[in-house]
Amino acid sequence: MTVPEPVLTAARAARHVLVLTGAGMSAESGVPTFRDAQSGLWAQYSPEELATPQAWRRDRAFVLAWYLWRFGLVATVEPHAGHVALARWADRNGQHVTVVTQNVDDLHERAGSTAVVHLHGALSGWRCEACARPYRGALPNVPEGGDRVDPPRCPTCGAAIRPGVVWFGEPLPADAWQEAVDRTEAADLVLVVGTSGIVHPAAGLPSVARSAGAVVVEVNPVETEISHVAHHTWRETAAVALPALVDAVSGHGPAA
Ligand code: OAD
Questions:
Q1: Is 131 annotated as a binding residue?
Q2: Gyration radius (Cα) of the chain, Å
Q3: What is the best residue among 123, 193, 196 to mutate for testing ligand 1's pocket, by most ligand atoms within 8 Å of CB?
Q4: Taking a C-beta distance cutoff of 8 angstroms, is the pair 39, 29 a contact?
Q5: Least CB-packed of 114, 176, 217, 219 within 10 Å?
Q6: Which EC class heads this enzyme's classification (predicted)?
Q7: What is the dihedral of CA 221, 119, 108, 91, to 10 degrees?
Q8: Is 120 a catalytic site residue?
Q9: 119 Cβ partners below 8 Å, 6+ apart?
Q10: Distance (Å, whole) CA 204 – CA 198
Q11: Residue with the nearest Cα to atom 23 of ligand 1?
């Protein structure tokens, strides 16, 4: 795999690298993206119909089953070579690498990345929908082939336990968003990996980076809403491009 020369040059020169990832970063681990055809039970639903406070209030059992299905899927898959490459790159030759992810899975952390900012929350962050206390109790199993399961109740106030993810229309965690903006503004290089660039404000970060003077590189097999913001577009997948880039940066792999 040959790394495009301008991408490699920018990666070698960067002191602060920011990697903005979306569902495409998890695709080669086996987790379906949001806007590819959803598999099985959920094929006819879009995230916009499921990941909203309205959907939750309308049918908590149905929305919970969808999240538990994704939660179960993530628990069975492994980080791929792209996740591992990012973790390996961090803090080598004095380069600092921060991952800002829209994903709610923990694949970056399981690969060894330590500087990870979750813009849309995390599957593990279950909490009470009313008093917001974190919930660490048992989670129900989705019945085989079922698509509904009643949420557990908060031990403190008795309200329903909800997924710790950001739904459409909800604010991003303020501290996560501020850190993402700060890191983006400080970056020399921003890699945008596996996102369609449809959901704001996350999708606005590449423009923030470009305005702040960073080199913006998109790693995605197809054109996206962000492609026009990138200085360089690398039409490759995450699990192929990232290991090749990190090997080339550390001098272990083929240059262009
Ligand atoms: P999408 O499903 O919208 O986009 C996934 C992107 O990954 C697409 O551009 C694909 O071309 C690309 N892709 C697929 N396979 C890839 C691979 N192997 N390597 C690299 N890229 C690949 O997912 P997101 O952009 O992450 O928000 O969606 C953003 C948000 O919309 C999510 O965080 C979620 C969703 O609704 C909330 O739930 C609030």
A1: yes
A2: 19
A3: 196
A4: no
A5: 114
A6: transferase
A7: 100
A8: yes
A9: 100, 101, 102, 166, 172, 173, 176, 177, 180, 202
A10: 9
A11: 23
Residue 30: how many other CB atoms lie within 10 Å: 12
* pLDDT tens-place string over residues 153-189: 999 999 999 999 999 999 999 999 999 999 999 999 9
Give dist(CA 243, CA 200) in Å, integer: 28
Query: Which residues neighbour 160 within 8 Å (Cβ) at sequence distance 6 or greater?
Result: 60, 128, 129, 130, 151, 152, 153, 154
CA 32, 120, 101 angle in degrees (round to 5)? Answer: 70
Q: Is the pLDDT of residue 207 over 80?
A: yes
Q: How far apart are CA 151 and CA 60, in angstroms?
A: 7
Closest residue by CA, ligand 1 atom 33: 102
Ligand 1 in reach of 196 Cβ (< 6 A)? yes
Would you say the CB of residue 160 lies under 6 angstroms from ligand 1?
no
Q: What are phi and psi of 124, to 5 degrees?
A: -80, -5
Give the pLDDT confidence of 69-90 residue by residue, as tens digits. 888 888 999 999 999 999 999 7
The pTM score is: 0.93
- In this structure, the residue with its CA closest to atom 15 of ligand 1 is 24
Decide: 21 in ligand 1 pocket, CB within 6 A: no
The answer to whether the bond into 201 is cis (omega within 30° of 0) is: yes
pLDDT tens digit string along 135-159?
A: 999 999 887 777 899 999 999 999 9
Of 12, 59, 8, 19, nearest in space to 218 by CA: 19
Tell me the C-alpha distance between 128 and 164, whole Å: 9
